[in-house]
Fold:
Amino acid sequence: MKMTFRWYGPADRVPLAHIRQIPGVHGIVSAVYDVPVGDAWTRDSVARLTDAIDNAGLSLQVVESIPVHEHIKLGAPDRDRYIDAWCESLRQVGAAGVPVVCYNFMPIFDWMRTDLAHPMPDGSTTLTYSDEAMSRFDLSRGTGELPGWSMAYDADTLGALLAQWRTVDAEGLWENLAYFLERVVPVAASVNVKLAIHPDDPPWSIFGLPRVITDVHALRRFLSLVDHPANGLTFCTGSLGVLAENDLPAMVDEFAAQQRIHFMHCRNVKRRSDVLGARIFDEVPHPSAHGDVNMRGVLAALARHGYTGSMRPDHGRMIWGEEGRAGYGLYDRALGAMYLQGLWEGVQR
Ligand SMILES: [Mn+2]
Structure:
């Protein structure tokens, strides 16, 4: 297992020099952030990223992510143009020697929370989600009310996108995903890159939009769409862990045995529900005891199958007065990296 840490490029408030000081962290997870979605990454844009990381004494181990243009997910008539650009980015990433690319296939939004700074009893703040808060957002005014998405879409653009999605249901999204995979997996294989889809977060429909990468059945179906080692998973314990029926250690056991887990996101979540049964969850500290994720079970399953891929602590809380990008401060993620490495050492035979 290779311990890694996400870095949002030169604009990240957490510098590479600080990441370098977390014991055991040698790999970086990052992306090219200055090329518009749908355009191909160039050799130079990837080289600027890898040079910055190499110069800090670290190495780029995972690209997270190459964004998938909305027209690919929608199956729009011009999708081939955007798939070609995605493949070109993939070739540049492969040429730079980066072994894994993470991406997701969620309509319009990817991750969604209803509060990015929910106060916890210990004085930290964390990301939370609640169905009830979701139901109060009014999308007719654009994304202005959505935490983390306020600048994403104005009312007209969002309205047009939502109208397009009314013609694509979950089965349609599966078809568009298969069409995409049939074209990108051979390219990935040809440049020695493993693709790793991130599960939907949260793993259920929001705003009436289809979401399909949700549970063990979905992951099996996904892997069978293109049955090739380059078509694999980012196993995100936090995303999958908010569904009580997802038995995370058993799922890791199944997919790691098939060598189809190419990247691990490790974080913990605590499920709650209100008196009406509406879903609520909080992101909590990484150790198993704080939430519903059996992190020991997950890492033990990985160890049994000799997992050699990258792992990163996923979101952290804001602690010790730190300010910054929600979920992506330095301190709590560094604690997570240390916990995960200790646990990893403990589960080795
Ligand atoms: Mn994740």
User: Anything to note?
Assistant: The two ends are 14 Å apart (CA to CA). Residues 74 and 164 are 8 Å apart (CA to CA). The chain has one domain: 2-347. The mean pLDDT is 95.
